[in-house]
Amino acid sequence: MNKQAQSHRRDFVRTLALGASAASLTSLARGGADAPPFVGPPKPEPKPEPDAIPTEVEARMGLVTSRFGTMLDAGRRKAVEARVTTIVHRAEALRKFELDNGDGPFPVFTPYRAPLAGGEGSSR
Fold first, then answer.
1. What is the CA radius of gyration of the chain?
2. What is the secondary structure of 64-100 as a DSSP string?
3. 88 near 57, Cβ under 8 Å?
């Protein structure tokens, strides 16, 4: 990359930063004549309800059909939709499980003992 292209990128970022700060200062100087009235803090988003699951399934099926729609007939599409519904239900159950910052995956440790070199009859 040449030196000239890097300087243009930096100049662009400086211009954006200066333009944003200048725009905020001019709106404060005008007294907010064109500003919308203050309504208050934003309302918290409602928690998803169980009927939100079909919309997620529909969105995921839309993705599948957009990518692989020509390869799926009606029977295969129903089978894929059943699998997607199962995955969405499992994901919903995982989302409901509360985790703390220090929680990590549960390691499954299964020790493996190699067979003895001399066969089963040798002793140590």
1. 30
2. HHHHHGGG--HHHHHHHHHHHHHHHHHHHHHHHS---
3. yes
DSSP 24-38: HHHHHHTTSTTSPPP
The token pair that represents 62 in the structure block: 């839309």
Quote the mean pLDDT of the chain: 75
DSSP letter at 55 equals H
Crossing angle for the helix pair 74-96 and 52-68, to the nearest 10 degrees: 130
Distance CA 57, CA 87 (A): 9
* Structure-token pair, residue 104: 């990590």
Write the pLDDT tens digit of every residue in 53-89: 568 899 999 999 999 989 999 999 999 999 999 999 9
Please state, for a pLDDT cut of 70, what percent of the chain lies above it: 53
CA distance 60 to 67: 11
Q: What are phi and psi of 49, to 5 degrees?
A: -95, 165
